[in-house]
Design goal:
2 domains; 362 residues; 27% strand; TIM Barrel; alpha/beta; 33% helix; 13 helices; 6-stranded antiparallel β-barrel; Lyase, Ornithine Decarboxylase, Chain A, domain 1
């Protein structure tokens, strides 16, 4: 452990630090939760986008994954996954890439239009799986749960195809990320599932039990009764972050990734510390607390890599390379220029994406 701490003390620029034991514990917990509910766990790799973490999933027996683009599918295809789901409405301009990767890898994509299905039927070389994307109230993408006729039409078109295999209905309850409590997350999940079930029961009788894939980290973390679904696709749980902590999705000891940034200046008159760590490192994702937007929460990291909150000490604003940290008198006095500060990112998915080249595993 001393070697790990010494390694971190040598950090000289903004660095994304991943706590591998916490990652492993998070994966194991979610795998057990899925198994106890007789559900498939298909983690979304858009959060970590990293082969070291991918291997942790693989070594723990995970064989189905989700990604958000073709490039990511190519990146992880060298692992022997049973299936890679492209959990984003298929971009028909990437048909050449899809044909290339589906030659040796089982790929499942999302569709929500007849036009896309017709295009696939005319241009696919290899057989692929297809989910129909359903909007259960998030209002981002997908066919509305109210439009049973359109969903049935897509099902019929897929079933007629010799290149497409119908995998089921897929939805993402992204509105849980705006929840302010566990109870609100459970309510959003319950309502959304009931709407999808309502849609499913309105389909032709042969499809009343068509598989359902759902998954957002708040729901999968908090909900115990998932209802009549078949697959869970959370992603953020591998690291968690400040947003998930405030929603109630995780405990502090489950947060598995932090940003470590050097202090470059201090301003006594306003109790503010300037760090080398800006929007190009954290992203500009913020979280509203006490009527102000915060961009990262300061924490202590002990020799055993456990985290503890530094009260009322947070990133108040970000520019491209600068971060302004608002402190209390107590926390301000504990740091000097040249010291390192540790922060929990607001949204680890965005921070991890920005910091892919500046990452340490401990």
């Amino acid at each position: 452990m001393t070697e790990m701490v010494s390694k971190l003390e040598k950090i000289s620029s903004p660095t994304f630090v991943v706590l591998k034991k916490a990652v492993e514990a998070n994966i194991h917990h979610f795998k057990q939760k899925a198994q106890s509910n007789n559900l498939t766990l298909r983690p979304h790799f858009k959060t970590h986008q990293n082969n070291t973490i991918a291997k942790q999933f693989y070594d723990l027996g995970i064989r189905n994954i989700a990604v958000s683009n073709i490039a990511m599918a190519e990146e992880f295809s060298h692992f022997q996954w049973d299936d890679i789901s492209l959990a984003f409405p298929f971009n028909i301009r990437e048909i050449v890439k899809l044909n290339k990767i589906s030659k040796n890898t089982q790929i499942t994509i999302l569709v929500e239009s007849i036009e896309t299905i017709d295009f696939l039927n005319q241009n696919l070389i290899n057989t692929i799986g297809v989910y129909i994307k359903i909007d259960a109230g998030y209002n981002r993408t997908g066919i509305s749960y109210k439009n049973t006729a359109m969903v049935q039409q897509l099902i019929n078109k897929i079933e007629e195809s010799d290149k497409l295999i119908l995998k089921g209905l897929l939805s993402h309850f992204g509105n849980t990320y705006s929840a302010k409590s566990k109870e609100e997350v459970i309510s959003i999940y319950s309502i959304s599932i009931s709407l999808i079930e309502q849609l499913r029961q309105g389909l032709d009788q042969a499809y009343n039990n068509i598989p359902i894939s759902v998954g957002d980290t708040p729901s999968v973390s908090i909900v115990d009764d998932f209802g009549n679904v078949d697959e869970l696709r959370p992603g953020n749980f591998v690291y968690y972050d400040w947003m998930q902590y405030k929603i109630g999705s995780c405990e502090l000891n489950q947060i598995a990734a932090v940003m470590i940034c050097p202090i470059v200046a201090k301003h006594n008159d306003r109790l503010q510390i300037i760090i080398h760590g800006g929007a190009v490192h954290f992203s500009k994702e913020g979280y509203s607390e006490n009527n102000e937007i915060r961009y990262g929460q300061a924490v202590n990291m002990d020799n055993d890599l456990s985290l503890s909150l530094i009260p009322d000490t947070f990133i108040q604003s970000l520019s491209q390379e600068h971060g302004i940290v608002q402190c209390t008198e107590d926390s301000f006095g504990k740091f000097e220029i040249g010291d390192l500060m540790v922060f929990i990112p607001i949204h680890s998915c965005l921070t991890a994406n920005l910091m892919k080249l500046d990452i340490e595993f401990v």
